[in-house]
């Protein structure tokens, strides 16, 4: 039976409103959703229109594959430092623009092609499905599997080879530009983090990063801390055109009573109670300079990793698992503090290739 809503006489306007069917009910009184009469699409009635839609969809998938191949070519051929002007965006990297545009266009074409496939060629008849308990009966589960198989057949995935092959080709090429972009991650970090500016020459003098003056032992009182870098680092940065060397070579100098030092990472690596450690946390690489004199603890502000500088920079709390790398200290003939050599291990966070 059907439930209908009848209009009145137009609230005194002298005409009747046509009855409108909003819902339908089955024999047990359950309300069903009212559906409009199905209207055939042009592709349902014309084989020529269906073939034309098929070619359009396949063209989108094929062009998407071309975009992904072109993205790889752009990654290899477009200079990474070239700048182009684009309306609205202004000056942008030519490499980033070509990569983003081609990968984005290819992804868009796959999506639009899939939508057009569903709208033009897949069955579009709406049906009413009754709701059951969360787990259906065995018969219902078998019926679901059968419906899935029938839907796969009706979608035309197997019967329309030009669409199937072009889609599979586009999807197969889709990850390749992303794989090529991984090349920008550079070489293994072991080669870059194991060596710092402290190892460029032996017995490198230490420069106070704040004052720009070379450090003498008497410049540092017990309990004091100095942020420092190697002498000649500025010239190295100008030569390399980046601050990568500074990020790796930054250290802290801390002075404590010599009898409070429990251990160092090498024999007599301190100088009269002055110790030098990397400034980069061994958890995820945050810079550290929060020092507590009473406990000789160095605290990372990012994730609260704590290191005991009186005991070889050992990690005593938090997520960090490695101690802070240490420099061996001495003084030169003019009384300036020097680093005898480079760190004995890579600075910064751990990584798989670390020996």
What would your notes on this structure say?
This protein has 355 residues and is of the alpha+beta class. The chain has three domains: 2-33, no CATH class; 50-129 and 137-185; 189-339, 3-layer Sandwich (Rieske Iron-sulfur Protein). The chain contains nine helices and 16 strands. The strands form four sheets. The protein has a seven-stranded antiparallel beta sheet with strand order 14-9-8-7-6-16-15. The longest helix is centred in the first third of the chain and has 31 residues, at 47-77. The model is unreliable at 1-23 (pLDDT under 50).
List keywords for this structure.
355 residues, alpha+beta, Rieske Iron-sulfur Protein, 3 domains, 16 strands, 18% strand, elongated
Radius of gyration: 36 Å
What is the element string, with H for helices and E for strands?
EEEHHEEHHHHHEEHHEEEEEEEEE
Major sheet characteristics = 7 strands, antiparallel
Assigned CATH architecture of the largest domain: 3-layer Sandwich
Number of strands: 16
Distance between the termini: 78 Å
Low-confidence stretches: 1-23
The overall pLDDT, averaged over residues, is 85
Report the CATH C-level class of the largest domain. Mainly Beta
Brief sketch in words of this structure:
The protein is α+β, with helices and mostly antiparallel strands and 355 residues long.
List the helices and strands and how they pair.
Blueprint: E1 2-5, E2 20-25, E3 31-33, H1 42-45, H2 47-77, E4 83-86, E5 90-93, H3 94-120, H4 138-154, H5 161-173, H6 175-181, H7 189-193, E6 204-208, E7 225-230, H8 233-240, H9 244-249, E8 251-255, E9 274-278, E10 290-292, E11 297-299, E12 306-308, E13 314-317, E14 326-327, E15 329-331, E16 337-339
Antiparallel strand pairs: 1-2, 2-3, 4-5, 6-7, 6-16, 7-8, 8-9, 9-14, 10-11, 11-12, 12-13, 15-16
Helix pairs in contact: 2-3, 2-5, 2-6
């Amino acid at each position: 039976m059907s439930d209908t809503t009848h209009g009145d006489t137009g609230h005194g306007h002298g005409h009747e409103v046509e009855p409108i069917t909003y819902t339908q009910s089955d024999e047990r009184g359950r309300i069903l959703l009212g559906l409009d009469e199905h209207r055939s699409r042009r592709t349902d009635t014309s084989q020529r229109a269906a073939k034309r839609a098929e070619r359009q969809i396949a063209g989108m998938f094929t062009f998407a594959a071309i975009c992904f191949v072109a993205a790889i070519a752009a990654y290899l051929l477009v200079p990474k430092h070239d700048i182009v002007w684009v309306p609205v965006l202004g000056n942008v990297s030519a490499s980033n623009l070509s990569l983003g545009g081609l990968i984005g266009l290819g992804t868009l074409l796959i999506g639009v092609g899939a939508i057009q496939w569903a709208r033009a060629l897949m069955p579009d008849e709406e049906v009413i499905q009754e709701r059951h308990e969360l787990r259906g009966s065995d018969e219902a589960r078998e019926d679901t599997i059968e419906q899935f198989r029938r839907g796969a057949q009706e979608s035309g995935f197997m019967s329309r080879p030009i669409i199937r092959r072009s889609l599979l080709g586009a999807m197969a090429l889709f990850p390749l530009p992303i794989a090529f972009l991984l090349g920008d991650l550079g070489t293994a970090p072991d080669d870059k983090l194991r060596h710092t500016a402290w190892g460029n020459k032996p017995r490198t003098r230490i420069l106070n990063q704040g004052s720009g003056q070379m450090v003498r032992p008497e410049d540092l009182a017990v309990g004091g801390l100095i942020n420092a870098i190697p002498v000649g680092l500025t010239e190295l940065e100008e030569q390399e055109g980046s601050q990568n060397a500074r990020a790796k070579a930054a250290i802290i100098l801390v002075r404590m009573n010599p009898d409070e030092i429990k251990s160092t990472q090498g024999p007599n690596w301190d100088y009269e109670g002055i110790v030098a450690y990397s400034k980069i946390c061994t958890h995820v690489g945050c810079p550290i300079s929060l020092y507590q004199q009473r406990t000789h603890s160095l605290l990372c502000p990012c994730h609260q990793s704590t290191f005991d500088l009186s005991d070889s920079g050992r990690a005593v709390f938090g997520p960090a698992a490695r101690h802070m790398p240490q420099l061996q200290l001495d003084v030169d003939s003019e009384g300036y503090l020097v680093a005898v050599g480079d760190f004995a291990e890579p600075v910064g966070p751990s990584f798989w290739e670390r020996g």
